[in-house]
């Protein structure tokens, strides 16, 4: 596994790891000089409707959670999500703010 040595090396190939895997590095360090950086990661879509289509058709965690609900609650959840997404819609489409944590270190 290859991780970036610093945020400046993000243009080189970087292996993304899940939080649980990163936690293992942190708790049982096989890496030194480990640090965590917050990186902005906005999501952009042509419209809220397009974002809803992608989310409802994806196999992601959100869809899996919502599919566990009974019919009425599932419908309400999708309506609530669509309503919140429209808050971020503007003349250039939909942009939802977001952040990711990027762990870096040396092996």
Brief description of this entry?
The protein has 4 helices and 5 strands.
Structure in words:
By secondary structure, the protein is α+β, with helices and mostly antiparallel strands. The protein has one domain (7-106). Helices cover 39% and strands 24% of the residues. It contains 4 helices and 5 strands; from the N terminus they run H-E-E-H-H-H-E-E-E. The chain has helices spanning 19-27, 48-57, 61-67, 71-86, and strands spanning 32-40, 43-45, 89-90, 93-96, 99-106. Strand 3 (89-90) and strand 4 (93-96) form a beta hairpin.
Radius of gyration: 18 Å
Looking across the biggest beta sheet, what order are the strands in? 2-4-3
Annotation, overall tally of beta strands: 5
The level of helicity is 25-40%
What fraction strand? 15-25%
Number of domains: 1
Low-confidence blocks of residues: 1-15
From the N-terminal CA to the C-terminal CA, the straight-line distance is 10 Å
Order of helices and strands: HEEHHHEEE
Secondary structure blueprint with pairings:
Blueprint: H1 19-27, E1 32-40, E2 43-45, H2 48-57, H3 61-67, H4 71-86, E3 89-90, E4 93-96, E5 99-106
Antiparallel strand pairs: 1-5, 2-4, 3-4
Helix pairs in contact: 2-4
Task: Describe this protein with a few key phrases.
single chain, 107 residues, alpha+beta, three-stranded antiparallel beta sheet, two-stranded antiparallel ribbon, 4 helices, 5 strands, flat, disordered N terminus
